[in-house]
Protein 1
Amino acid sequence: MAETEPSYTWLAQGWSAFSLLHGRIEADIERALERAHGLSVREFSLLEVLSRQHGDVRGHLQMKQVAEAIILSQSATTRLVSRLEGRGLLRRYLCDTDRRGIYTDVTDAGLALLAAARPTHDTALRAALDQAATDPTLTSLVRTVEELRVPA
């Protein structure tokens, strides 16, 4: 059996801790959003992404851009969009200049649900980070997340 280089071991352990933190946070947010608003984390993320470009003069997002933004396959994104479209939270339409292009936009109902769900999301995120900070293997990662200043 080949020995693992020490730097790869530390790298793997760091990745494992990061994955653990992400999983815990996502699970806590998922429970809170589902309970209070009937939304999954992915649904919330989709509404969030679409809300950022809603009414923007640059136009709306094509389905492939949506898939990249929420980190899902195109087929999974299509299913997610269909589900939210069925609930009246977003709509799809053909591009005026390229009839092959399908765009997605959030509706007023979607914006309202997002506005109602955002405090739930943020409260669950804060609570999950506070809880994770009590785990010595996650403390430095939590601190890093808290210090990040990433533009939307």
Note: The chain has a mean pLDDT of 88.
Protein 2
Amino acid sequence: MLSSTQSVNSVLAPGNLRKVHHIALNVQDMQASRYFYGTILGLHELTGDEVPATLTELVASGKVANFITPDGTILDLFGEPELSPPDPNPEKTFTRAYHLAFDIDPQLFDRAVTVIGENKIAIAHGPVTRPTGRGVYFYDPDGFMIEIRCDPEAS
């Protein structure tokens, strides 16, 4: 592993990385996760010809589901039925990834909080208001933290 004090011979220049290509999450209950991301959060699930050719067989067998976020990032869910969280308490961060954040129009933020509550999804933190905007943090069916956030409303 490279330490912050080691010298490097070459680096990628700013702008070489164009965008996030996809985010992959292992999920224990594919049906619960598909419902969470597709129905509750309203992400479009890729079907038919929308599914990348490299994943067609895995999607057909039910081992993978693909969603597209509003900005075009693909969210891949990989079914791992034997997956168990490292700790039964989801508030203990168990990976280097902390959370996945979705941006929402400030006018729709309160509606998102209502939807979370109506679906009896436990809120981990918030809603909070900061100089950077408002946010609410909650867990997906596998205990991975999700944030819905918005920029501050213009005065």
Note: The radius of gyration is 18 Å.
